[in-house]
Amino acid sequence: MPTLRAFQLPSKRLILSYVLDWIVIIAIAGVGGGFNRIGPYRRPFSLVDLNISYPYTENDQVSWWVVLIVALIGPGVIIFLTCLFFVPGPRAIRTHPWSLVWRRKFWEWNTGWMGLGLSLATAFMITEGLKNLFGKPRPDLLARCQPDVDNIEQYVVGGYGQDISPKWVRVSAAICMGPNTDEITDGFRSFPSGHSSFAWAGLLYLTLFVCSKFAISIPFLPPRAYSTDSKAVALEAKRHDRLPLHEDDETSIIPIRNQAAAPPNYLLVLALVPVGTAAYIASTRYSDYRHHGIDIFAGSLIGIATAWFSFRWYHLPIQQGAGWAWGARSRDRAFGIGVGTGNYVGTEGWGPAKSSQLRDEESGRNGILGPGLDGQQAVSNEAPSADSLARKASTDR
């Protein structure tokens, strides 16, 4: 087991920048919590609107506590265990020092949790803010409201149906006489669905994370120097029946059909379980009469958008990144960069300014990720060859 000294901690400046990132994520969630405590706008409604006249049920099929466990705690535990036991791959563990392996485990764990936290916090803040802005009545509002039907005229705010029926008008929320004011207030938080956005934000992010780490994706053709000649596609010669990553013949033609393959189906099932769970949680909000269909749809879109964005914020594309997260920012660019600076990775490295201990002179890798674990060499203007790309892909896992 590696010691703390073996981890060769990066500069304090860099560590503080990522502590600040965590503080920002927590602050985003805090803003969402503040929105939740603020009373929503109460949109006027009609007492004869059948869309808000469904019965009120006190117990949800899926409570908020269950959603927190399923969409936050569960994915967090799975991400931790995945990074602990499966990152990096078996070959990297056998061929690299334990200190480097554990640094990579820690970094992948950190980015995995940061992405999950950013996805859930952002979805929570957006959803709670929109609930307050729209103030849309829930399908069971009238059951919560218990309106004062004997004095409707005192609460009329609009409508032109009085000549047909005194109840064909728009009334304000002041007409509600229900004993539980919290239930009445919550009755105006229909759009968008918080259960749906939170479930999709956490569980879809988990699906993307699992797909990345276990290479679960539709087979694709990477940009390589393999032949696309029709003869090779239709019928391979006997001398070309090697697998795509065979290295002893640099000039051999690799047929397109042999350049990729579908992952095992059990991995597809693992990836679909979180998505199916999110869909189920969203569906219960309709059958519980808590939300209209458009509320669930909008909430799901919010969760899907934040999950995808947060995953890509910290992780490489699933089909091209070999399961890795993006590396850390450079020391001098930890808190920001100026105009004209390309990106957040420079040549100064990740270690303390007065020490070159963390810097690998050959590869330029850092004390957080460790040299060579991702198969990446020093920055070069030359495009890598097809064989070098193939060798890197085989050693990453």
Please describe the biggest sheet, giving its number of strands, its sense, and whether it closes into a barrel: 3 strands, antiparallel
Strand order of the largest sheet: 1-3-2
* Low-confidence blocks of residues: 230-239, 356-365, 375-386, 392-397
Oligomer: single chain
DSSP helix fraction: 40-55%
Our estimate of the beta-strand percent is: under 5%
Broad structural category: mainly alpha
End-to-end Cα distance, whole Å, is 22 Å
Question: What integer value in Å does the Rg equal?
Answer: 28 Å
Order of helical and strand elements: HEHHHHEEHHHHHH
What is the overall pLDDT average?
Answer: 82
Strands, total number: 3
- Shape label: elongated
Helix count from the secondary structure assignment: 11
Pfam family, one: PAP2
Subcellular location: Membrane
Main location: membrane
Membrane topology: Multi-pass membrane protein
Quick structural overview:
It is elongated, with a radius of gyration of 28 Å. Among the domains are: 6-41 and 51-140 and 188-217 and 263-314, no CATH class; 220-233 and 245-261, no CATH class. It has helices at residues 12-37, 64-86, 90-95, 98-134, 141-145, 181-186, 194-213, 230-234, 265-287, 293-314, 386-396; strands at 45-46, 156-158, 170-171.
